[in-house]
Amino acid sequence: MAQTHDSHAEHYLEATRAEAHRLHAHAERLRVEASALMERGHQASAIALIAEQRALELDEVLGRAPQLRLDVARPHAAVTATGDAA
Q1: Cα distance between residue 55 and residue 61, in whole Å
Q2: Residue 52 CA, distance from chain mean position
Q3: Which of 2, 24, 61, 65 minimizes the number of CB atoms within 10 Å of its CB?
Q4: Residue-level pLDDT at 14
Q5: What is the pLDDT of residue 61?
Q6: CA 5 → CA 24, 29, 30, 53, distances in Å?
Q7: Residue 10, CB-side half-sphere exposure with 13 Å CA sphere
Q8: Given this model, what pLDDT does residue 69 score?
Q9: Cα–Cα distance, 85 to 67 (Å, whole number)
């Protein structure tokens, strides 16, 4: 009976080690995935900052050119610096 108990204990120990190994491997995969997602997040943030800077630049340009008038009735008409359709 002691041998059966030892056999069960050994089997349990092997199963526990295998599960710990599986969980460790899964944690490593998650770390790699998290790192890749963080890198993509940094890249997206950089792109967003550039887009926001460009929007601010355009706001500044539009703020300095109040004489610019867009003809919404004729969207394809060229607009001169004074706002007159060409």
Answers
A1: 10
A2: 16
A3: 2
A4: 96
A5: 86
A6: 28, 36, 37, 71
A7: 6
A8: 60
A9: 13
Is 80:69 a contact under the CB 8 Å cutoff?
no
Any idea of the CA torsion for 27, 28, 33, 34, to the nearest 10 degrees?
A: 70
pLDDT digits (tens, 9 = 90+) for 13-43: 999 999 999 999 999 999 999 999 999 999 9
Residue found under tokens 């069960």: 8
User: Residue 14: in which H helix or E strand, if any?
Assistant: helix 2-64
pTM above 0.70, yes or no: no
12 to 1, 8, 60: CA distances (angstroms): 17, 6, 71
Contacts of 7 (CB under 8 A, 6+ apart): none
User: 3-class SS at 71?
Assistant: coil
Q: How many residues does the chain have?
A: 86
Are 85 and 79 in contact by the 8 Å Cβ rule? The answer is yes
